[in-house]
Amino acid sequence: MKIGILTSGGDCPGLNAVIRGAVLKGSRKYGIEFVGIRDGWRGLVDADFFPLQRADVKGLSKVGGTILGTSRTNPYEGDRGGAENIKKTMYGHKLDGIIAIGGEGTLAAANRLWNDGVPVLGVPKTIDNDLQATDYSFGFDTAVNIATEAMDRLRTTGDSHQRCMVAEVMGRHVGWIALHSGMAAGAHIICIPEVPLSIEEICEQVESASERGRAPLVVVAEGFKLKGQEEAYSDKGLDAFNRPRLGGIGEVLAPLIEERTGIETRSTVLGHIQRGGSPSAFDRVLATRLGLHAADAIVDGAWGQMVAMKGTEIERVTFEEALGELHEVPLSRYEEASALFG
Amino acid sequence: MKIGILTSGGDCPGLNAVIRGAVLKGSRKYGIEFVGIRDGWRGLVDADFFPLQRADVKGLSKVGGTILGTSRTNPYEGDRGGAENIKKTMYGHKLDGIIAIGGEGTLAAANRLWNDGVPVLGVPKTIDNDLQATDYSFGFDTAVNIATEAMDRLRTTGDSHQRCMVAEVMGRHVGWIALHSGMAAGAHIICIPEVPLSIEEICEQVESASERGRAPLVVVAEGFKLKGQEEAYSDKGLDAFNRPRLGGIGEVLAPLIEERTGIETRSTVLGHIQRGGSPSAFDRVLATRLGLHAADAIVDGAWGQMVAMKGTEIERVTFEEALGELHEVPLSRYEEASALFG
Amino acid sequence: MKIGILTSGGDCPGLNAVIRGAVLKGSRKYGIEFVGIRDGWRGLVDADFFPLQRADVKGLSKVGGTILGTSRTNPYEGDRGGAENIKKTMYGHKLDGIIAIGGEGTLAAANRLWNDGVPVLGVPKTIDNDLQATDYSFGFDTAVNIATEAMDRLRTTGDSHQRCMVAEVMGRHVGWIALHSGMAAGAHIICIPEVPLSIEEICEQVESASERGRAPLVVVAEGFKLKGQEEAYSDKGLDAFNRPRLGGIGEVLAPLIEERTGIETRSTVLGHIQRGGSPSAFDRVLATRLGLHAADAIVDGAWGQMVAMKGTEIERVTFEEALGELHEVPLSRYEEASALFG
Amino acid sequence: MKIGILTSGGDCPGLNAVIRGAVLKGSRKYGIEFVGIRDGWRGLVDADFFPLQRADVKGLSKVGGTILGTSRTNPYEGDRGGAENIKKTMYGHKLDGIIAIGGEGTLAAANRLWNDGVPVLGVPKTIDNDLQATDYSFGFDTAVNIATEAMDRLRTTGDSHQRCMVAEVMGRHVGWIALHSGMAAGAHIICIPEVPLSIEEICEQVESASERGRAPLVVVAEGFKLKGQEEAYSDKGLDAFNRPRLGGIGEVLAPLIEERTGIETRSTVLGHIQRGGSPSAFDRVLATRLGLHAADAIVDGAWGQMVAMKGTEIERVTFEEALGELHEVPLSRYEEASALFG
What we know:
The structure is a homotetramer.
Chain A: E1 2-7, H1 15-29, E2 33-37, H2 41-45, E3 49-52, H3 83-92, E4 97-102, H4 104-115, E5 120-124, H5 140-161, E6 164-169, H6 176-185, E7 189-191, H7 199-211, E8 217-221, H8 249-261, E9 265-269, H9 281-299, E10 305-310, E11 313-318, H10 319-322, H11 331-338
Parallel strand pairs in A: 1-2, 1-4, 4-5, 6-8, 6-9, 7-8
Antiparallel strand pairs in A: 2-3, 10-11
EC number (chains A, B, C, D): 2.7.1.11
Subunit structure (chains A, B, C, D): Homodimer or homotetramer.
Function (chains A, B, C, D): Catalyzes the phosphorylation of D-fructose 6-phosphate to fructose 1,6-bisphosphate by ATP, the first committing step of glycolysis.
């Protein structure tokens, strides 16, 4: 049996641990031969393969990024794309199936390929934790740890200067990183895409914290939009001073907060450091387990499915189930956290 | 309503986050008045109380240890111990109930008190993750992160010297910390109390790793016992050279491995650093949520119960349910990990 | 003897360790009574003092920020400012002298006060390491560690996506943080205020790294200016697309690099996380030693001087000596590092 | 020109950064051809060489350990050892010289070889910081950071249980790691080989800290000996209970302290984690600079010398100068720190 592995979409701490887990178990227990596919679907379309053996995955559980490279290519695009071409390529290289590690876009492409007859197994990857079919996805815990540690640092500088600190974290569509890092760091208000707030509501918490002698900490997911101003703050919109907007929502909020509360306010965009570097132990264990179970799933012929974490177990779900709605922060979780505000 | 909070047993990162969560929500949403009870059950027996207000818990989510102090006192011991005395003390101080944060011993005492008419609510605390009634307990993730980071360091020194490194981690009765940190760090063999192994089985993995050019990493939980030698390696037993044993199992294994394999072997006992310091983000969130839900449970009069994590939710279980068997590593999880060995 | 302590200017990891060192030694060995002065010179002008005793400084060596608060107030401004008013305030509160912990602006003010008859002792604080009179200043090592760790993370995401990563670090006038963190993280080009480079020179290194299969890492100090375009990129200037500039130099460089090299380029501004949080061990030791020596200097009546690190020793220098030129990166150090480029 | 590089003695964070610095500058600026010598002097004696090119050193500045391997072999031992054999081997492989990275033993061997006509350049490596000829050596800062972070963790568990914590750190002959980590972590007493203390003196500080409500932290270098009992606690001596001693001095002190003060006391031996893992930024910069300057020194024909850090500069010293006395902690530095005790 010969299986290709690819990683697709934004990188995420734990990708290498999945690869290592699948290759170690697959090659040794089941005698599977693995090939690495370079740069996501692009490498599959271009037949850009290389042998992936035990020695190639040694020491990888702690290594960030992906040794396979990644891209955002769609396997149906281009002259050589599409299920028929891919099936020919796979036939030519004697590939019996593909493990595709990726997020929603990747899994949607995987599902389409599977429906078109390409044997694909999915492994969920989303640093934002936005997939319904898995309790947690690897990379998320690492991102939350990095964001939390950064906020711990921001707090000391905020306290010394009696400043309000705004920390912008990842999360275009869902607020999980903001919710968890904000709870962990003791934020005074958490702004997530699922719960629009007005600038007045935000400033109320800022002032309340300030009155208690605290340096206010505002955590905001990049996809948060101010209540009633969703259009004005769109990606192509204007900033608070009617200039074409370059920065993120954190840079929108900071001057508004300062203007209304009179409290000196600074914004920090955590950016790409949230998705790089060595994974946390939690993510290493989760990613390794997903890789191990992917090897099992291949032997079981569980194509068209995805391995996923439920409670403390790894289970299988069909792509159909996996690709439902976005895993948003439920209102109950936001309300739970809001008991810590104000 | 007036509620006392105590922390009992070995300390654990996240205790302060529970206290903060309960006090913030309880005092502000429900108007509960909190008192801190010093040093676990001892403070309850001795009426060693102090007011615990919002300002006292500020900034605590990231602080390791417990501001309440802790001890291993049994509330039924001593002249002033026992349910009747405690009820009188509580009546005298107008305490309507107790939140007891602790592990199995603490919860057993809490259950006995509850059966004797003392209103107690439990919050599970076990760095070893050995309670059945909760998927994860706070402190565990922090300990696994610390152990993993230490092993990452041990590996580089092992690689440079072509040495076998033995890392002894916490876990007297269950092997969760060893299992998770060992998987995360890429151990070549993991030794846990639930799965006795012979020295031959261990050395086989050590030699196999060495033959592949790796510096072998052996992770061992403190409660691991060599197969067939459970007596010889008991706490009062002799060491590998028939001397009275002072060190832990790591110091037993290292010379045995070196003797049999001829590979230079060094042992490191991670010890108390695993339970100290700032909690990981995961543990801060979990502990904070347990504290928030403890406040809800009190208002609901859910005495004799414990808040616990199930999947991604916080639920309530009775003490009876919580105090069943130890949450051991199931064989399936050990076998899952063992695909990474040899 | 009664001494006031103040911290002034931007906060910096290690401020609390200085305070602790001075108070512990001063109060116990020399019987000095200390008062804390709130928010820098503002607190001195406003007589905003509070007692500072041994118990107040416990555990402070590892705590970021400053328990005294800080501000950028000039002691000569305002109705109540000026040397004569300050001398009256000090006389009224029986203050025999002031320890002023701060950077160049603070030390210049301290020097003026000293020349006007106010007994002031200086402790150098500059996260940018821009003071000539001290080999290293506390806070710098912590900032370099944080920046380096962030770049380690950026590299893995750069490698996975074959992107060029631009990291903007602190350093308005000098490039020490960029130089050290860039060397530590293996940057392919380091851009500092002291050494103007053209965009062509930068892109040459980016392309060279890319051709060798590396994801290029560009480290840029916030005060770097492109050769020949110092005006265009001034603080009030236009960005690369002739829009009013909001972001820093990192956001200027990234699109220029992407445009010229065709390599996808992302910019990250590390910002305030570089100056917050717990100090590194190096900074704790340095800051503690400066505090200890400040206590000695007071007893010796060494007013008008500053304690400073020379080699491995703490010495005293006069304010005059301390306030010479900025401690820039010498060309020899830049050339030394440039052997690692291209 | 063809140069061999070897690393010898105990491993140390930063070794790889030295190798990278030397190879990058040497090969590109000076056209030197490098070969790696495996496992220290052993590889030189056995002619165990491999090509070391630019691509082999990429990304190494942050990697702990040594890619060359290390051993404690003496180049004068064995049939194939000795200067004449080594010169023949070097002649046969056209090696023009050797860069030897190591501590006192390595440098002494290097000196002897140099006196016997073998061109050797030294780079100092001592995690203990025990060489007179260099202000700081790489690895030391990393070790101090690791020890300090571990002590920060020990303190929270000590505080929660009102325990005395004893932390044993590296330092057989000199107390630099103990001194710096103890100052950084706020130890209540620091025990170093240079300053014998009686158990009474130690307990006095422990009790004083305890009386002030602190959990006492005792930091002890592994080479510390109790005053007047130097023989009894020798390496082959007996422990506090007259049993053959297995553990280190930390395990000797803990029961003595507990017995005399009545304060529960726990000992932790930090062990090998202090020398493994990724170097701190300080050590990466220092090690890289030493490597860069080693390349310069070779071109200058500065054989029989060692590159060393003096203040902020890298200089050259002869082996004779480098091999004088051990760089002990001077009494003045111990007294400086002792102002923080009791």
